[in-house]
Amino acid sequence: MGYFEMAKTAIKTVMSKPATLMYPARPGKMTILSRGHVVIDVSRCISCGMCMKKCPAEALCVDKEAKTWTIDRLRCVVCNSCIEVCPVHCLTMEGHYSSAVLTHSGLETFTITYVKPERPKKSEPGEPAEA
């Protein structure tokens, strides 16, 4: 009886359509829940390093002194953890796939351009406040 079940399954599999798509010839359908790759808005990044600490693959590196934000695209597992933890929401997930690479060119470095706004100077007690 076991051979009959196996032959039935094999014939059914051969006669059915393939379960996978021929990517990249036929790209997959993108939905709202699809993930592509991480994008940063460097003008809003405050170099807090929360994304780097939360990344399970250690694909991110934030250097406060050099004011750089680096991502290793080949290490990134697109888990969305860095985006969820970002306090200023400068990280987003762009919904398109990139083609496969043959060399390790996945390391991207961005220079952070955020400028911390100056606080107004506090006046000394006894001095009149400037208007």
Looking at this protein, list some descriptive labels.
alpha+beta, 3 helices, 17% strand, two-stranded antiparallel sheet, Alpha-Beta Plaits, 18% helix
Catalogue the unreliable spans.
none
**What is the annotated CATH architecture of the domain at 32-111?**
2-Layer Sandwich
CATH first level of the domain at 32-111 = Alpha Beta
Distance between the termini: 94 Å
Estimate the mean pLDDT confidence. 83
* Fraction of residues in helix: 10-25%
As a percent range, the share of strand residues is: 15-25%
What topology emerges from the helices and strands here?
Layout: H1 2-15, E1 37-40, H2 50-54, E2 60-63, E3 68-72, H3 81-85, E4 91-94, E5 107-111
Antiparallel strand pairs: 1-4, 2-3, 3-5
Structure, explained:
There is one protein chain. The protein is of the alpha+beta class. It has a domain of 80 residues: Alpha-Beta Plaits (2-Layer Sandwich). Helix content is 18%, strand content 17%. The chain has 3 helices and 5 strands; from the N terminus they run H-E-H-E-E-H-E-E. The strands form 2 sheets. A 3-stranded antiparallel beta sheet has the order 2-3-5. Strand 2 and strand 3 form a beta hairpin. The chain is elongated, with a radius of gyration of 25 Å. The mean pLDDT is 83.
